[in-house]
C-alpha cells in the first residue's frame, strides 16, 4: 500500500535488498521503493542483479565478487559498527555510496558488559567497587562501558594509543603494562589486521602469560583480537575468568574453549532492540541525505514498541545486589550463556542463535520509580543507564 502510494506520488522506485535482521527496515524503506528481504550470509545472484541499495549486517561480505553481481548498486549500508566485512576501496572505485552505524549499539554493549560482570560477581560473591578496570579502546562502546563500571564504584582507566597520540583526552589513560595488571580487562577495539595499531591477536601467548588467574578478561569486540588457540592453552593450564561474546573464526568457534569460559554468548552484545533500531534509523538518514529524499522520515517512536509502562519500584538501598537484580531481570544473560553452550558449538547453531535472538531492551526502556534518592545516587543510576 505504502509502496503504491510512493509510486503514485512520483517518488523514485528504488530496489532495496535488506538483511532480514535489520528491524523496521521494511517499514521504513518501503515508502521509497521495493524492499526485498534476504536471509543467510550472502544474498542470491538474482536479487543482487536488481539491487540499488543493499543493507547488510556484519555476516555479509561486500567484496569484489558480490559487487560484480550487483551492476545497478548505488549505495551500501551496514547496520553495524565494525566495517571489516566491506571492501571500501572497491566501493569507492565504483562510485558506490556507503554508510555504517557508528555508536548505534554502544549502550547495548555497555549494558552487556555491566550485566555480565554483575552476574559473575553475584555468582562468585565478589565486591566490584574499588577494583581496577582497563578499557582497551576508548571509542563509543569503550566509553559506554567505562561510564557504567565507574558508576559501580570501579576505578576505570583507558588504553587507546591512536586517540592519545591525537591529543584527545579520555578520563584517564593507562599504559599497556597497567592494562595487563588490571582486575578486569574489557576489549573495545576494531579488528585491524595490520599497521601501527594492529589489533589482531593483541592478546596472544606472551600477553596472556602475564595475566593472573584472578583477573577477568572480557571480549565484546571481535574474536580475533585474542588469539583463541593461545587462550585455550592458557585456560587449560591456569584459567582466567573469561567473558566472551566474540570468537575467532565465527561462526565456527574453537569448541573446547567454550567449556573454559565463565560466560559465553554468540556475538550479541550489541543486540538490544534499541541499538538495532538506532542503526536502521542511521542508515535511513544516510540514504535520505545521499539520495536527497524529500519525504518526511518515518515516525520511529510509533514503530518501536514502548516499554516505559513496565516500571520498577526502588525501595531498597542501592547496593550491588540490587543493581544486579535489576540488570539481570532486564537482560537474563545466563539464558544466553545456556543457549550458547547447547547450540553455539557448530556454525549452524551459532548463526541460528543470532538470527532467532529474542527482543532485548536497554534499561532506559523501563522507568525506575524511586521515593528517596540522593543527588549522587540519582546520578549513578543515570550513568548506569536507568531511566528515572
Ligand atoms: N560484540 C558486539 O556485538 C559488538 C562489537 N563491536 C566491535 O567493537 C569495536 C569497537 O566499537 P566502537 O567502540 O563503537 O568503535 P569506535 O570506533 O567508536 O572506537 C574504537 C576505539 O578503538 C581505538 N583503537 C584502535 N586501535 C587500537 C589499538 N591498537 N589499541 C587501543 N585502542 C585502539 C580507536 O582509537 C577508537 O577510539 C567495533 O569495531 C566492532 O568490531 C561493536 C559493536 C557491537
Ligand atoms: O556493530 C557491530 O560491529 C557488531 O558487532 C554487531 O552488533 C553485530 O551484528 P551483526 O551484524 O553481526 O548481526
TrEMBL record:
InterPro entries for this protein: D-iso_2-hydroxyacid_DH_PdxB, D-isomer_2_OHA_DH_cat_dom, D-isomer_DH_NAD-bd, Erythronate-4-P_DHase, Erythronate-4-P_DHase_dimer, NAD(P)-bd_dom_sf, PdxB_dimer_sf
Catalytic residues identified in the record: 222, 250, 267
Residue numbers binding substrate: 58, 80, 271
NAD found in the keyword field: yes
The EC number(s) this enzyme carries: 1.1.1.290
Single annotated GO MF: NAD binding
Catalytic activities: 4-phospho-D-erythronate + NAD(+) = (R)-3-hydroxy-2-oxo-4-phosphooxybutanoate + NADH + H(+)
Domain D-isomer specific 2-hydroxyacid dehydrogenase catalytic: 34-291
Domain of life from the UniProt record: Bacteria
Protein name (record): Erythronate-4-phosphate dehydrogenase
Organism from which the protein derives: Aliidiomarina minuta
